[in-house]
Amino acid sequence: xxxxxxxxxxxxxxxxxxxxxxxxxxxxxxxxxxxxxxxxxxxxxxxxxxxxxxxxxxxxxxxxxxxxxxxxxxxxxxxxxxxxxxxxxxxxxxxxxxxxxxxxxxxxxxxxxxxxxxxxxxxxxxxxxxxxxxxxxxxxxxxxxxxxxxxxxxxxxxxxxxxxxxxxxxxxxxxxxxxxxxxxxxxxxxxxxxxxxxxxxxxxxxxxxxxxxxxxxxxxxxxxxxxxxxxxxxxxxxxxxxxxxxxxxxxxxxxxxxxxxxxxxxxxxxxxxxxxxxxxxxxxxxxxxxxxxx
Length: 294
Prior knowledge:
This protein has 294 residues and is of the alpha/beta class. Helix content is 38%, strand content 16%. Strands 1-11-8-7-5-6 form a six-stranded parallel sheet, with helices on one face. A three-stranded parallel sheet has the order 3-2-4, sandwiched between helices.
């Protein structure tokens, strides 16, 4: 029977460490980490994420600045606001909640954020630094996966990691992190995705499988070899009339079927998603402390 890798306790431990280091930074240098967040539009998921980030800032003693704007907020106004935050010394991290409305060019907005304030790790400079192994701000979910691997003492050296998914947010950065010649990495990495004619051909080779395709419960035991470690990044709404909301949350892995074959598996919800906000706060603390030099 698989070990269930619940992440709530790990995420809470990280947040307590951040809180202690924040108090130390304030006491020793008079610097309070500041995070500015922009939300444009009324997407329910985005609203919930921003509210959670705002609460976490308060819990950790951060200075937070939240702007909530209507759907018709223009691209020019977004760019202007980001540039204002770039010049604000009390703001160490800038986060523009994605997705943005279709009339706003996400790439242009991301490239406007100063790399040293890009705590989401999406600016091309941070992406490039990550790829060549320099210190950078790492996207929060991949950073959370590495932290989970480290704290759970999951062996990666020489292991075959299969990443199912190729997004800029998860698939590409986690693949680049795990192939580097570093502790909690140094793996043999394969990237596959839904364009594969036979996805099972790849996933069955995995010692560690990272599922991040946005395909609800696609991966069942038939996709797996025995004793695989499964990190499920999927977060999908699945229609379920038995639930009061009319839906349930599911990962990309069929949890009940897969756990009988796996050595360890993250649940959804309750898995790596909990690590994401903790790593955003850690990135903001690093930005405030000037830990990453550009």
